[in-house]
Amino acid sequence: MSKTTQLEILVGAFMAAGFVALFFLAMQVSNLGTVNSGDAYRITARFDNIGGLKAKAPVTLAGVEVGRVLDIYFDSKDFRAVAVLGIYSQYNQIPDDTFAKILTAGLLGEQYVGLDPGGSESVLKEGSEIAVTQSALVLEEVIGQFIYGKAQEGAN
Amino acid sequence: MITWLATLGRAGLASAARLGRANLLMLAMWGGLPAMLRRPRLLLDQMFSVGVLTVLIIAVSGVFVGMVLGLQGYYILSRFGAEATLGVMVAASLVRELGPVVTALLFAGRAGSALAAEIGLMKSTEQLSGLEMMAVNPQHRVLTPRLVAGILSMPLLAAMFTTLGVYGGWFVGVGLLGVDDGTYWAQMQSQIDWHEDVLNGVIKSVVFGVVCTWIAIFQGYDCVPTSEGVSRATTRTVVHSSLAVLGLDFVLTALMFN
Amino acid sequence: MSPNPATTDILVRIRGLRFNRGSKVIFDGVDLDIPRGGVTAIMGPSGTGKTTLLKLIGGQLRPDAGTIEVDGLNVHALSTRDLYRLRIRMGMLFQSGALLTDLSVFDNVAYPLREHTRLNPSMIRKLVLLKLEAVGLRGAHHLMPAQLSGGMARRVAMARAIALDPMMIMYDEPFTGQDPISMGVLVRLIRRLNDAADISSIVVSHDVKETLSIADLAYVISDGRVIEAGSPHKLNASENPSTRQFIDGLPDGPVAFHYGAPALDADLFEDAP
Known about the structure:
The structure holds three protein chains of three kinds.
Chain A: H1 2-29, E1 40-47, E2 58-61, E3 64-75, E4 80-88, E5 99-104, E6 111-116, E7 129-130, E8 132-134, H2 139-155
Chain B: H1 2-31, H2 33-37, H3 40-79, H4 86-124, H5 127-133, H6 138-176, H7 181-191, H8 194-221, H9 227-257
Helix pairs in contact in B: 1-6, 3-4, 3-6, 4-6, 4-7, 4-8, 4-9, 6-8, 8-9
Chain C: E1 10-21, E2 24-35, E3 39-43, H1 50-57, E4 65-70, E5 73-74, H2 80-88, E6 90-93, H3 105-116, H4 121-134, H5 150-161, E7 168-172, H6 180-196, E8 200-205, H7 208-214, E9 217-222, E10 225-230, H8 232-236, H9 241-248, H10 264-269
Parallel strand pairs in C: 3-8, 3-9, 6-7, 7-8
Antiparallel strand pairs in C: 1-2, 1-4, 4-5, 9-10
Helix pairs in contact in C: 3-4, 3-5, 4-5, 6-7
């Protein structure tokens, strides 16, 4: 009888360890533990060029992650890209004249949205739109401008 | 030339027949499911020999694979000054590929070969015939619990492998090479997606569980009931399972991650 | 399901049985009757398909032609469910014993009881110990099959075969590879179980002396046919050269010593192909 119990315990421990490992993968390794889109309000920001920005990229304010990019689509009326940002609801005091820009982590890293708070009294709410944005830095354009500038200098 | 063609044709027909028998066997095993659920004890025994006994090799391999990933990843990433993404590299390769695939290969070697040998020996010592003559369906009684145990065990084993691998990489990267602890986990969490990476990895390992266990059971059940036949069945189990896992992995990866 | 009254004294009736394995003909028109209540021996040289015959009777193999009726039921026309119901009433003793190696002797004998009855554990225990007592192995109930000698394993298998009080037991080569003592034990046990429990027994064997010593009726099979049938006494007095060769164990006769081959000198002096 004790042999049976032993077997049951071992198999039970095996199943438990397996499920703990799965839980660990969900909560500790993946983003399931960090994203809680239910507790976020959505704002939009229009950019001339989003570069390599992708959905789920972080949104930071003073370097702290305050939200995620939920969706990116193209507005065919004004030919600009619209990024829908989900801001975690505890950050509900962000001024509505905040400036959004697309930044790059390191020289070759992932792109993310950085917010620069303004000085307005009213705050961003569900559905607000950020008016002032700065597009992504596209390396080819920067280099192109640099070379064009040098050529101009040489001509003068 | 003609004999050569004839041999080829015979081999083709034999393979087709084997494939057919394997499918019929699979159907027959599913038929045993209700009877097995009434006797969970049968499953318990098989969970032990298929799952619990495979944990050790999975755990040890997981830790070492993770440590190697940590070491190699660190040296490559540090050339680009991107050591911060070590956690992502370790976790992504484990969750998506190495976890399910290496677990399945080890499973085929440890549990699959044991299953094939056990069933083959039961066949060659007439135990399966004996059950049949005792009016007990050996496919339902002997094979179904083994199949279910294999399918249940594989994703759990793969999850253990991946988890221990992530910790192995953490031990080398953070513990020995000085990557920041917070960065290791934070980068991992921001880049690994629950649905796209983890769940797809779990789906992979369930598929591998079905395939590896099925191959092992079929090879054991279909073997020539002699000692040579059993040894061939064991070898074939490992070879066929490994090839099937690697081939399927490519197909599944292509389907899942486009 | 009720047995045909005309067949009540015949338990197993085989008519026109044909069976091929690949291109090899194993049975070519076998007619056999096995009466109720006795020990029937089926003898023949190795490789004549005696084990195959038992598997055909048990419904594990399908004949290419002919019918096999057991207790009035055509074995190969039964549904799976009815076949399994019939098998509960058949016991079979395999050459190797076919004990389940992961269960103890006790659990092996209890297996069919647990499988097919709803008896409570104490009842099962009593029955198992009684069955083991009948084969003289009550003291070995805690051993594992690997700890048993070949003869003991066969006796345990016998206890298991009679666990459900079947109407018949089929013995597949029960005497092969036994020392004289355990051979004697098995011989007497088969007869005793047959008479005590009113079971019909079919013994398939090539051990002529032992088998004939307990058989009521014997068949000799050779080349896929029944070549001789009758009481052991009649068989011993048979004039049929094939039967004589088999019973007396002569090296050469109708069953040739040499496997079919071209003439020796032709084979030896032929250039290698």
